[in-house]
Amino acid sequence: MKFSKRLLRLILGWFFLVLGILGLVLPILQGWLFIAIATILLARDVPFFKRIWHYLQQRFPKITRKAYKLTKQIDGKK
């Protein structure tokens, strides 16, 4: 079960990252939004995104607290 959640998180994270990069050049998509979602999803498994997440936690603590609560709800933990 844990492996499948991790795999799903990785697949979705990379998908949103590619979508975000496309969104930076296409006027239809909101690139930064998809990159932010990808960062949240990939922060547990990819060291580069973990460093970005820690930087964002220090820079924007109020926003990252809300994102942390959301990820806990998604994982099913309280």
Structural features, described:
This protein has 78 residues and is mainly α. The chain is built from four helices and no strands. α1 packs antiparallel against α2 and α3 crosses α4. It is globular, with a radius of gyration of 13 Å.
Average of pLDDT: 86
General shape: globular
Biggest sheet features: none
Indicate the structural class.
mainly alpha
Share of helix, binned: over 70%
Number of helices: 4
Task: Pick out its properties.
78 residues; mainly alpha; globular
In short:
Helix content is 82%, strand content 0%.
Task: Chart the SSEs and their pairings.
Elements: H1 2-25, H2 31-42, H3 47-59, H4 61-75
Helix pairs in contact: 1-2, 3-4
